[in-house]
Write a structure and sequence with these properties.
Layout: H1 9-23, E1 36-41, H2 52-70, E2 74-76, E3 80-81, H3 86-95, H4 99-116, E4 127-128, H5 132-147, E5 151-161, E6 166-168, E7 173-174, E8 177-178, E9 186-195, H6 201-207, H7 216-226, E10 228-237, E11 244-250, E12 262-266, H8 270-276, H9 280-289, H10 296-301, E13 306-314, E14 321-327, E15 337-340, H11 346-354, H12 397-410, E16 414-420, E17 425-426, E18 428-429, E19 439-441, E20 447-449, E21 482-485, E22 488-492, E23 496-497, H13 499-502, H14 506-509, H15 522-528, E24 531-535, H16 544-557, E25 567-571, E26 576-584, E27 590-593, E28 598-602, E29 608-613, E30 620-626, H17 637-644, H18 646-655, E31 663-664, H19 667-688, H20 703-725, H21 729-744, H22 751-768, H23 773-782, H24 799-805, E32 807-814, E33 817-825, H25 830-840, E34 849-855, E35 859-864
Parallel strand pairs: 1-2, 1-24, 3-4, 12-14, 24-25, 26-31, 32-35
Antiparallel strand pairs: 5-6, 5-9, 7-8, 9-17, 10-11, 10-16, 12-15, 13-14, 18-23, 19-20, 19-22, 21-22, 26-27, 26-30, 28-29, 32-33, 34-35
Length: 865
């Protein structure tokens, strides 16, 4: 038989969520009379199921939004869906349905899951990037950027799968093979669309200085990604030809020009392509390079190889001949020619040794060969640089650099130049499930920008399209490949846009998702923006978080926004880690097994010492690693919801660790959170049976009551500082739990005790409301409150009461010598302090006090005869 007032999370949460939905509790409108707060968590790809990473991210955002709402702010807290992209195509292909229908069904499922978590979203502002009313304005914005010259198309090298006949993103290439067909990829020249993010390099870099509430690590990663470098562009003439090569050398490393062993040149440099026509050896090398994935990560780890081009360049200062080597670790993007400085750079040193290329020693530390690292060694070996060259002997590095710069300038073979590591953003994707590029061509190959009245160009796959999966190579079967503009047949661009484009401006559209007169409603957008608090993983530091900053500036320069940056404060939550296990198949490939498939043994410290599958075969324990589908170590949130309820899961997420730290998943800790909620639930229901109309008289409390009330005020203060000001949610919750324990140990003897406990419970429920809203919604009513807790203000603490009632240490001296330390309240009089000292001290001379020296809150010196 069920206990009458037992905590039943499923029933409670269903009731409260239905109330919120019916009353549109979290729907918000622009109100210039109120201070706004825009809280946003990075929106999810609709995979169909939430994972625990989602739960943590969205719980953190929800707690912050609820806290700010209780502070009286006008809070915008929306949710949407990053709907386009490769994962949907993968799943659609596997399940033989269209990506559109797969995505829409997943959105429906995930929305239902999010609602079960009790998240305070304004669902009237929901958006999905695959909706025509969303991407219509993205296409419109593309045309405006194109007209400004900020978008262009050019021939570039890409990862190409010859089997599937499509371009692959770097993440789609696994060990040099196609992610789907497993065929070997190759590099291929292809026409691709680019957005000129490089025109904003300096502003993106300098803007980081204004982001005071962004993690330092994210800003450092973006600075390094943008990679500003001042230096010289130096001309190297090629011997016996009119050809020239240009190399950039960093300002503080100009002296290294005196230690060149060779020039590296990319295998796809136009000059190399030209000479390869007469050299089979070079052609073969170029062909081998084309099998290497175009990815900095891959190129940085491959074996560095090269072939001699049989060409020499002329050193601009010494006039010596420098061999030119074609290498496999450069490709024709920002850097296609580079100097090899073996006495300075570890990789150059290894390359020169491998191919027996002689080099000059510019750092003379000793006579032995030094395996130099990539670090700049100018500070370490300043006294040893270029000492073998008479004119530089004894000079400081800065002076050497200046002198060489002057010489290069006088020879007219160099100019000052700032370069950036950042490259223009390649946005072309050969995908059906994406936003189509709003460009067309006529029969005469003339390019046409699609006029606004013809937008949107509907995605290949939509609700009117086929319900089965289609591939990009099957484009011809789609009817919408051409368009009539002004009565003339035009052929639509076949490529679609990178999904990062959609996620680069969704935050702005959330301010006006149903606006039909333009990309943004300027009044709404500029009221809500910039985002006050953005929450998401640090893995997005150099892509999404850089792209939204770029797009914000593009929209500003289009006259849509007034601010320079999209996000005031950024919070990067930690990951959730879980035990992972794998076995090896006959090909030594890892087969990841879920914990349900494993039997484990632990030692006394709780560490796993043995793991076997259900057939008794030993499996490898991979440790605690990030939860993921690919590692089969995820925990299904729905199972936790079913057993414990949303509030227990929310409390666990906020209490178990600081939000920036990783969480190690332990189901026992979930049990602890559940026990606390049940304890609080029972305590308040028990208290409600002794309800009294007695009003708490703060000025008439006894010492025992003062102690509890003072603890309450201190708890409110600490929780406010931790939860509101510093986002130290775990310590705030810990403080509340400690205070609840004090309440449980407090014995109620009279009506004032009952009134005091009610006041304490009221404040506890208010402080916990952002974290466990369903429980607090009910308990607030159980305590007899008629005002809706959803609109109640955050608890306030009485600083003057805390100061007056808090006992502070006071040094007691008798005749100038230390006697004791006592604890007194700040408002105690000198006479009262003396009486306390008398009670503690049995010395007779205290009856013959000559004089008292009292320094408030520090010491009292009693002078006696």
């Amino acid at each position: 038989m069920k206990e009458k007032n037992a905590y039943r999370p499923k029933e409670i949460e269903k009731y409260v969520q239905e109330y919120w939905e019916k009353n549109k509790t979290f729907q918000v409108n622009m109100d210039v009379k109120k201070k706004k707060f825009y809280c946003l968590s990075m929106f999810p790809y609709p995979s169909g199921k939430l994972h625990m990473g989602h739960v943590r991210n969205y719980t953190i955002g929800d707690v912050i939004a609820r806290c700010q709402r209780m502070l009286g702010k006008n809070v915008l807290h929306p949710m949407g869906w990053d709907s386009f992209g490769l994962p949907a195509e993968n799943a659609a292909k596997k399940n033989k349905v269209s990506a559109f229908h797969w995505t829409i069904e997943n959105i429906r499922n995930m929305k239902d899951q999010l609602k079960k978590l009790g998240l305070s979203y304004d669902w009237s502002r929901e958006l999905s990037t695959c909706e025509p009313n969303y991407y219509r304005w993205e296409q419109w914005f593309f045309t405006k950027l194109y007209e400004k010259g900020l978008i262009y198309k050019k021939l570039t090298e890409v990862n190409w799968c010859p089997t599937d006949k499509t371009v692959l993103a770097n993440e789609q290439v696994v060990n040099g093979s196609c992610w789907y067909c497993e065929g070997k990829i190759e590099r291929k020249n292809q026409l691709q669309w680019f957005i000129k993010i490089t025109q904003y390099s300096e502003e993106l870099l300098q803007g980081l200085n204004d982001l005071k509430r962004w993690p330092k690590k994210v800003k450092t990663m973006q600075r390094n990604w943008i990679g500003r470098e001042e230096g010289l562009e130096i001309e190297f003439r090629i011997l016996h030809t009119r050809e020239k090569l240009f190399v950039h050398l960093e300002k503080r490393k100009i002296y290294t020009i005196m230690g060149i062993s060779c020039l590296y040149i990319a295998s796809n440099h136009p000059l190399i392509i030209k000479i390869s026509k007469k050299d089979k050896r070079i052609r073969n090398f170029i062909q081998s390079c084309r099998k290497i994935q175009i990815s900095e990560e891959v190129i940085s780890t491959i074996e560095k190889e090269g072939v001699f081009s049989k060409m020499y360049s002329i050193h601009p200062i010494t006039g010596k001949s420098i061999p030119i080597w074609i290498v496999n670790f450069l490709f024709n993007q920002n850097i296609c020619v580079k100097l090899s400085i073996p006495n300075y750079n570890h990789e150059d040193y290894k390359f020169s040794k491998k191919y027996n290329i002689p080099f000059e020693r510019i750092i003379l530390k000793n006579t032995k060969d030094l395996d130099y690292s990539q670090k700049d060694r100018t500070e370490v070996f300043e006294e040893t640089i270029l000492t073998h060259i008479e004119e530089y002997k004894g000079m400081k590095v800065k002076d050497i650099n200046n002198q060489i710069t002057k010489k290069l300038t006088s020879l007219r073979v160099s100019k000052k130049k700032i370069v950036y590591r950042l490259r223009d953003w390649e946005v072309s994707r050969q995908r059906l499930w994406g936003v189509r590029i709003p460009i067309a061509t006529k029969d005469d190959k003339k390019v046409i920008v699609i006029p606004e009245r013809y937008l949107p160009i509907i995605s290949y796959e939509d609700k009117k399209g086929p319900k089965i999966y289609s591939e990009f190579k099957d484009l011809d079967k789609f009817k919408n490949n051409s368009i009539r503009i002004e009565g003339e047949e035009c052929y639509l661009e076949k490529d679609t846009l990178d999904t990062f484009v959609q996620s680069s401006w969704y935050y702005a559209r959330h301010t006006c998702p149903n606006y039909n007169e333009g990309m943004l409603d300027k009044e709404e957008a500029n009221y809500w923006l910039p985002i006050d608090q953005y929450i998401g993983g640090i893995e997005h530091a150099t892509m999404h978080l850089l792209y939204i900053r770029f797009f914000h500036k593009l929209m500003r320069d289009q006259g849509l926004l007034f601010s320079n940056e999209p996000v005031k404060s950024l919070l990067c939550q930690g990951m959730i880690l879980s035990d992972a296990f794998y076995s090896l198949d006959k090909d030594k490939k890892k087969i990841w097994l879920s914990s349900d498939q494993i039997s484990i043994k632990r030692n006394k410290n709780g560490r796993i010492v043995e793991s076997k599958d259900h057939q008794g075969n030993s499996v490898t324990y991979a440790g605690m690693i990030k939860m993921s589908k690919s590692k089969n170590n995820g925990v299904n949130p729905e199972r936790i919801l079913e057993k414990y309820g949303a509030d227990t899961m929310r409390l666990f997420m906020m209490f178990i660790a600081p939000i920036e730290m990783n969480i190690e998943w332990r189901i026992s800790q979930m049990n602890g959170a559940h026990r606390f909620i049940k304890k609080l639930w029972k305590m308040i229901f028990d208290h409600s049976e002794n309800q009294s109309n007695e009003v708490l008289q703060v000025n008439q409390l006894t010492e025992r009551q003062i102690d509890l009330y003072l603890n309450l005020q201190k708890t409110i203060k600490k929780v406010t500082q931790d939860m509101i000001d510093q986002f130290h949610f775990n310590t705030a919750i810990s403080e509340i739990m400690k205070f609840v324990n004090k309440i449980s140990n407090y014995h109620q003897k009279n009506e004032q005790d009952i009134a005091l406990i009610k006041e304490a419970f009221n404040q506890v429920v208010l402080m916990l409301f952002p974290v466990i809203p369903h429980v607090c919604f009910i308990l607030w009513k159980v305590l007899g409150n008629h005002q809706n807790i959803d609109f109640h203000e955050w608890p306030r603490f009485d600083e003057s009461y805390i100061n007056s009632q808090t006992k502070k240490s006071l040094i007691v001296q008798i005749n100038g010598k230390f006697y004791d330390k006592i604890y007194v309240k700040e408002n105690f009089s000198e006479e009262k302090i003396i009486s306390i000292v008398r009670k503690k001290c049995f010395r007779r001379e205290l009856n013959k006090i000559k004089r008292v020296i009292y320094i408030r809150s520090k010491l009292i010196n009693i002078l006696v005869e």
